[in-house]
Amino acid sequence: MELVIARNPDPDSRLPYLLRLPLGEGLVFATKDTWPRTSALYCHPLPLDAWPHDDTLDEVEKVKLRVCDRRGAAIDIVADRTRESRTQIVFTHARGRQMVFWQSPRTRKQSRPDVRTPTARAAGISELEILVDAHEKYPYKFPQQAVTTTRKALTCGDYAIMLNDRTIAAVERKTMADLIGSLTGGRLRYALADLAALPRAAVVVEEPYSKVFAQDRVRPALVADGLAELQIAWPGVPIVFCDTRKLAEEWTYRWLSAARVWAGQEATLNPEPSEPEPSTKELRAWARGEGIDVPERGRLRPEVLAAWRAAQMPAS
C-alpha cells in the first residue's frame, strides 16, 4: 500500500503535483506540494483517469503506508516511517462548496474548520449599524446578519458602533502579518492606547495563536512576549485569535452586538447629567462666588462638588 506523488503534466495548472491514494480503486488529487509540512495544502479532486500512464508518469516520491482509511469527513494516512508519518485528507465546506485539504498534526489548526456560523441575530438586535473605517481596504460585509454598514473615518479601530453620537465600542482587525509588523514596529502599542480610551475595545486576529510560533522572519518568542506585555499594559483591550477571516467577522459582529446592549443598559441605569460637571478651576470660581472658602491650589474637598450639584437641582 503506497501513496504516490507525481508531477502534474498539465502546464496550465497552478497545482504542480498529483497525489494518488490507495483507497478503493484509487483517489487522485492535484495539490501544491509533496507533503503538508508548514501549512495545509489545498487538494483539487480529479477523475482516476487523470493519473498519467506509466510511459508519461514523472514520479517524484512513493511512500509506503501502514494506514489509509476513510473515517467520516477525513481520510487518515499513516506512513511507514518515523518522521512526518501522520496526515489527513479532510473534506470540508467553504465559500458554498466542498473543498479538500491535506493536513498534518502541525498544520491542522491552520486548515479551514468545518463549521457553519449561525444566522441567529446576536443579543436579539433586529438591526445593528456598524461603522467601517474609510481606510479599510477589504472590509467585513456581514452578509448573513442583520447589519447595515456605514463608511466613516474612525479615530481608532476598523469597526465601531455609536450611541448618542458617541463611539461606545470598536474592533481593530489584524491579519497575522499586520499584527507582527505593527507589534515589532511599535504601532500596535499606540493603537491599543487609543482603543483603551473607549468604553469597550478589542483586537481580532484572523488566524490562530499557533501561527505566532510558525514565523521565520522574526523570533516567535519576541512576538509572544510582546503580545503578553501589551495585554498586561492594557488588560481592557483583549487580543482575540480566530482561526479564519470568516470566524473573525462573526466574532466581531457578536462582540459589537453585546457592546451595544451593554451600552443601552448603562445609559438606562446611569443617565448622563443634564449639565456637565465643571473643571476644578470653574468649581473654585463658583465656590468663591458663593462665599465658600477654597484653597488657591490643589484638589478641592468633596463637599464643594456636592454643594455645586445641589445648587443645580431645580427648586421644589
UniProtKB/TrEMBL annotation:
Gene3D superfamilies for the chain: 3.40.50.10130, E3-binding domain (4.10.320.10)
Record carries keyword DNA-binding: yes
Keywords assigned: DNA-binding
Domain ERCC4: 129-209
Domain of life: Bacteria
The protein's name: ERCC4 domain-containing protein
Organism encoding this protein: Kineosporia mesophila
